[in-house]
Amino acid sequence: MEKNTKVSERDERLKKLKELQNLGLDPYPSKAKITHDIGQTLADFKALEKNQKDIFIAGRLRVIRAHGNLTFARLDDGSGQMQIVLSKKEVGQDNYKNFTKLIDAGDFIEARGRCFVTQKGEESLLVKNWKLLAKALRPLPEKWHGLKDEEERLRKRYLEILTNPDVRDLIEKKSVFWNAVREFMLKKDFLEVETPVLETTTGGADARPFATHHNALDMNVYLRISMGELWQKRLMVAGLPKTFEIGRQFRNEGMSAEHLQDYTQMEFYWAYADYEDGMKLAEELFKHVAKKTFGTLKFKIRGFEVDLNKKWQTYDYQKVIKKETGIDVLDASQEKIEAKLRELKIKYDKKGFNLTRGLDNLWKYCRKNIAGPGFLINVPVTMEPLAKRKKDDSRLVERFQVMIAGSELGKGYSELNDPLDQAERFSQQQKLREAGDEEAQMHDHDFVEALEYGMPPTCGFGMSERVFSFLADKTSRECQIFPLLKPKGR
After folding, report:
1. Maximum Cα–Cα distance across the chain
2. Distances (CA, A) of 392 to 166, 181, 280, 321, 397
3. Superfamily of domain 158-192+228-312+372-479
4. What is the CB neighbour count within 10 angstroms for residue 160?
5. What integer pLDDT is reported at residue 425 of this predicted model?
6. Matching Pfam families, A to Z (predicted)?
7. In the chain, which segments carry CATH 2.40.50.140?
């Protein structure tokens, strides 16, 4: 029944569209005349009311109420909503008739008129003339923001944004978030760069890439899985001391509340700095961005109370796992770790399973009770093929990860700049790939060659839009404007 009603409403609007065209009225003109947006009009209302000059505003009609010779409507242009009033006497009989008969809620119009206050005290625009800008053929939903079917909400996200102020606010905050990141990095004298999205070998992360074909060069290429890590480190070789990039990256992996396949990431690279310098800068960055975006440093995230202003802790990878599971990550065999995963009933992908994947699954089990804020340190060298070994224990690397609400929200390390060590680690990663681990890193011979020309001591750090979703206490999917969905019927 509901489907038939919608079809009938669309048919009625199609009839109105035809009638408008028969009257010689263009239902989809190219341009509108606007002298004021609605937000500006309401802010300057008293002055505009006093001078009594006509202004032009435009927007979508949200509500229309006809009362004989007077019609009241609400106009929304994205900067605000304002009541407009049409009088048969003011606009003329034909214009009034056309409006009440052929115009619907959801249509876009341009209105010329003067500001006045109604008898009920509402700041309004008395319309002298109007012009249709776009005829909507489907009616707007009345309670879209209450829809429980998440798939349908996300598929027609434009309707959720239109009808749910909280979703629009989330999108606006996300813009503030990334602008705050950029502002912070620029103030710290980092140079913003752009590196390739298409690569012949992927680098900078343990992840399964998306593959495609480059027709002009007749070769297979990959969409990047990091924010140009190996490219930005080439820029360190080139003599640029501080670089950062904000952009889109892609990982052909599973979906969850925290993980997406294409998302925004920021990475910076800082010559003559190490991972301890990186931790200090990352903490400062998080505080700046949180305050700028949300106006606070205190958050409720995934059931945790998180205060970014308190002293940030350090969490030792080896000690945390041993305390939670009894496993010594520097001594345990792959078989022992796999047995522990089965004992703890931790689900894991058996394809390409190895020691590194086993440790990663074990850590994900242990991290869930860490509230943060703080840094995870002392990770085994097998977990990070691009980081420097620790001076006091070559089994570990100089790596840190931001820990908040039971998850990692950023990773950095003292970058490995020893070309011989790097080549050896790439070789080990290549063996893992050949054994079936699709997330192991590819051997990038060109990058090793660049390192042989000399790269200064460097710290790198990366964080993704998952930081925003955690601070907003929303799923990553909810925080994307248009998340990827299967087409209907598949």
Report:
1. 89
2. 50, 34, 21, 21, 10
3. Bira Bifunctional Protein; Domain 2 (3.30.930.10)
4. 20
5. 87
6. tRNA-synt_2, tRNA_anti-codon
7. 2-134
In angstroms, the Cα distances linking 141 to 138, 163, 374 are 9, 8, 45
Give yes or no for residue 371 having a pLDDT over 50. Answer: yes
Span 315-355, pLDDT tens digits: 999 999 999 999 898 888 888 888 888 888 888 877 778 88
pLDDT tens figures, 402-418 = 999 999 999 999 999 99
Helices (H), 406-475: 419-434, 445-452, 466-471
β-pair type (123-134, 396-397) = unpaired
CA 258 to chain CA centroid, Å, is 12
The pair phi, psi for residue 322, each rounded to 5°, is -65, -40
Give the integer Cα–Cα distance in Å for 225 and 201: 10
Alpha carbon distances (Å) from 87 to 74, 81, 83, 124:
15, 20, 13, 13
For domain 2-134, give the CATH number: 2.40.50.140
CA terminus-to-terminus distance, the chain: 25
C-alpha span between 375 and 325 (Å, rounded): 20
Q: Using CA atoms, how far apart are residues 47 and 41, in angstroms rounded to an integer?
A: 9
DSSP annotation of 316: E
Contact (CB, 8 A) for 247 and 227: yes
CA 307 centroid distance within chain = 23
User: What's at 144, amino acid-wise?
Assistant: W
- Does 408 carry a binding-site annotation? yes
Closest among 460, 485, 463 to 230, alpha carbons compared: 460
Residues of the chain with CATH 3.30.930.10: 158-192+228-312+372-479
Contact 327, 336 (CB under 8 A): yes
